[in-house]
């Protein structure tokens, strides 16, 4: 895999990124370290984490993922220099008071969160530091519509950028990015950065998969014109696009044991748990089988080969899953198969927005 430059930054990453949000919840520390070992050995130079991980977010596991990664760095002193390390500062509380006092995300909160991540990760610098979700109210995490009546923003984007600039100047962060953002947000962050000599966002990390292609509706143009790179998360639709729920559904005695969406009510309440999302996933999964592919191969190849995607974030719970996801890199989708995918989207839309 050739590396890809992220936006206008100096970061060059593999087009596959190891997501780590299962570390500390579904995946114990020894297994997490084995996955990190294998991923690095297979040539992946990009890992992504966040202060709020593991997922689903709970007070007892807050910071657990970064802590596990930090202990791996300590055990493997040469690994840190081989990797591009991304982490995230959590946005406003969203019902997680253990992250910080207050419901907002002030400039001081951004700095404190970064310093906490650095301690847990046992590193001096984070290569890509991202705002996990916007400080202002936006339609995200299953909310489809913008509602100005719900606006509670207190920290202007300019002030957030100034806080990030301080971290860059201090050598604690190399480059900055966004996550779960909108076209307005990306454009405003870039505009203010260029107008005031502040760090320019290199990336936006948003959901992108067969059952959620909301990125294709304007944000793709915004990022293309502004040279902001997409880091696609949930390429397998929280497991719906692996086919493992096709027969059983996501609940009940026959649902796969230990799977995130089947195990955690908080996950099922969001976009991935909608019946329409599973119905759409079943159609894509059947399309894969009709063309001699596994559902996983189809879903990942759709992201891997997409001009919109700079790097696809894969979250795994085992070495077998890691190997399967990496093997899908060699899967190419024909123009006819891509047209069939678009035909299904025309009929079912994006049910997991």
TrEMBL record:
<keyword id="KW-0560">Oxidoreductase</keyword>
<dbReference type="Pfam" id="PF00248">
    <property type="entry name" value="Aldo_ket_red"/>
</dbReference>
<dbReference type="InterPro" id="IPR020471">
    <property type="entry name" value="AKR"/>
</dbReference>
<dbReference type="InterPro" id="IPR036812">
    <property type="entry name" value="NAD(P)_OxRdtase_dom_sf"/>
</dbReference>
<feature type="domain" description="NADP-dependent oxidoreductase">
    <location>
        <begin position="15"/>
        <end position="344"/>
    </location>
</feature>
<dbReference type="GO" id="GO:0016491">
    <property type="term" value="F:oxidoreductase activity"/>
</dbReference>
<protein>
    <submittedName>
        <fullName>Predicted oxidoreductase</fullName>
    </submittedName>
</protein>
<dbReference type="InterPro" id="IPR050523">
    <property type="entry name" value="AKR_Detox_Biosynth"/>
</dbReference>
<dbReference type="InterPro" id="IPR023210">
    <property type="entry name" value="NADP_OxRdtase_dom"/>
</dbReference>
């Amino acid at each position: 895999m050739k590396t890809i430059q992220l936006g206008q930054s100096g970061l060059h990453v593999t087009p596959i990124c190891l997501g780590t949000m299962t570390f500390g919840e579904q995946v114990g520390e020894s297994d997490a370290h084995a996955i990190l070992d294998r991923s690095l050995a297979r040539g992946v130079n990009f890992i992504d984490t966040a202060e709020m991980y593991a997922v689903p977010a709970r007070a007892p596991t807050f910071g657990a993922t970064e802590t596990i990664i930090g202990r791996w760095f300590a055990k493997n002193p040469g690994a840190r220099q081989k990797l591009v390390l991304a982490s995230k500062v959590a946005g406003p509380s969203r019902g997680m008071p253990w992250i910080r006092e207050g419901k907002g995300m002030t400039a001081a909160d951004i700095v404190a969160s970064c310093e906490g991540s650095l301690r847990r990760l046992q590193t001096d610098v984070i290569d890509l530091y991202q705002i996990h979700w916007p400080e202002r109210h936006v339609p995200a995490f299953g909310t489809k519509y913008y509602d100005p009546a719900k606006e509670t923003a207190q920290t202007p984007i300019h002030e957030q950028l100034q806080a990030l600039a301080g971290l860059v100047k201090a050598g604690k962060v190399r480059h900055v990015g966004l996550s779960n953002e909108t076209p307005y947000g990306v454009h405003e962050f870039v505009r203010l950065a260029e107008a005031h000599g502040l760090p320019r966002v290199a990336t936006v990390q948003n959901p992108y998969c067969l059952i959620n292609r909301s990125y294709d509706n304007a944000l793709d143009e915004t990022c293309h014109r502004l040279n902001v790179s997409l880091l696609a998360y949930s390429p397998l639709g929280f497991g719906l696009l692996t086919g493992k729920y096709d027969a059983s559904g996501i609940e009940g005695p026959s649902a796969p044991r230990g799977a995130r969406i089947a195990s955690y009510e908080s996950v099922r309440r969001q976009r991935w748990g909608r019946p329409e999302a599973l119905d759409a996933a079943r159609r894509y999964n059947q399309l894969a089988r009709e063309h001699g592919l596994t559902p996983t191969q189809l879903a990942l190849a759709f992201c891997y080969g997409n001009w919109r995607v700079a790097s696809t974030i894969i979250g795994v719970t085992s070495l077998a899953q890691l190997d399967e996801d990496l093997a899908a890199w060699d899967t190419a989708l024909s123009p006819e198969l891509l047209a069939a995918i678009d035909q299904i989207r025309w009929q079912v839309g994006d049910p997991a927005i």
